Amino acid sequence: MSRLYVGSEVGQLRRVLLHRPERALTHLTPSNCHDLLFDDVLAVEAAGQEHDAFAQTLRDNQVEVLLLHDLLEETLAITEAKQWLLQTQISDFRFGPTLACELRRRLSRFDHNKLASLLLGGLAYAELDFHSNSMLAKMRGPLDFVIDPLPNHLFTRDTSCWIYSGVSLNPMMMAARQRETNHLRAIYHWHPLFADQPFHRYLGDDGHYDNTAIEGGDVLVLGQGVVLIGLSERTTPQGVENLAARLFATGQAREVLVLSLPKQRACMHLDTVMTQLNHDTFSIYPQVVRRDLETWRLTPKRDGGMSARASHHYQKALERALGLSALNIITTGGNSFEAEREQWNDANNVLTVKPGVVVSYERNHFTNEKYDKAGITVLPIPGNELGRGRGGARCMSCPIERDDIHYS
């Protein structure tokens, strides 16, 4: 029987959550894309075709693919879930009581497919089919958004991440992404795939998290009770400690290793500069993941507290935690210029589907060649459009079921 469990980064991947680019990308323009955390506008049809190729590659490798739009549509068919989502996403505090009431009344009449599309993809004032009595609506222009699009839902890894027998519904750092988490809250609470399944909820069931922020691109499940987390521009020390505390309290982790990354967009998450390809093999971008990178080791204390100790070398800390004599490190391919370009295009952000088999953008020729020479099988996918969103195969996937691995 299938279960909700992710035991590693490289064991056989069995079920994964993806989100096909759709309505939200049509709302990206040169004038708003930066506010929506994109560097450029994407060709919508081409991006969709590339995503279809990604999904089919996973299916061809015995991975069941779930699509976010479908899960949200099916969740909205449940009356209680629909009411909660409308109250949460179309709240009085976001829109004011007049416009919120008008919007909820109108949106509640749409079929579940269209409502899911609007919640995910956004709605402009020019697209409203009613005249609002709200002061807010009267102050907005026709191309302003009533409901902001959520194009970053493409990166399903960040919004929620499954760690052993539970999930973290992540408090997101950037305002443009914070509404995403509510969709996953509803899906994991009400959708039949999840509603009756036992699993832990580490973070995300409460409301405001203050300075606690964490995103799934910074979380690597290494197996055997070890978790690796990056301190990036999107994940705070408070986020790491709160997640670690819940992992320890539920007995799901025995150790959390933390790497402090530069707070830069080029390495916004740990998985943009480091991923695991096989039991003992990691891909890194050496200009960021250096030997002197500040590393911390968090472990539970008997009194329920937590110990935080500095480690001198991330590689040695990983070897000790995993019981390995040495790690096999593959660096980004090409000369300095080529490596920087390929890292920007997510050469290190690959998705391992089983030990030694990874999905990678075909455009990253130099790095893919290094993987091949190291005995790693590369499943290439097109990414000329998807890659412009600054996320690779790992970013675009949220594993929901994956096998354990055992280190010798």
TrEMBL record:
Q: Which reaction does it catalyse?
A: L-arginine + H2O = L-citrulline + NH4(+)
Q: Name one Pfam family in it.
A: ADI
Class of enzymatic activity (EC top level) = hydrolase
Question: Main site of residence?
Answer: cytoplasm
Q: Which GO terms describe its molecular function?
A: arginine deiminase activity
Q: What EC number(s) is this enzyme filed under?
A: 3.5.3.6
Keyword Nucleus attributed = no
The pathway to which it is assigned is:
Amino-acid degradation; L-arginine degradation via ADI pathway; carbamoyl phosphate from L-arginine: step 1/2
**Keyword terms, alphabetized:** Arginine metabolism, Cytoplasm, Hydrolase
The protein's matches in Gene3D superfamilies, at most eight in alphabetical order, are given as:
Arginine deiminase, L-arginine/glycine Amidinotransferase, Chain A
Query: InterPro entries from the entry?
Result: Arg_deiminase
What are the BP-aspect GO terms?
L-arginine deiminase pathway
Q: Where in the cell is it found?
A: Cytoplasm
GO cellular-component term (any) = cytoplasm
Active-site annotation:
C395 (amidino-cysteine intermediate)
The organism's superkingdom is given as Bacteria
User: Does Hydrolase show up as a keyword for this record?
Assistant: yes
PANTHER family the UniProt entry points to: ARGININE DEIMINASE
Protein family according to the UniProt entry: Belongs to the arginine deiminase family.
Query: What name has this protein been given in UniProt?
Result: Arginine deiminase
Q: Which gene encodes it?
A: arcA
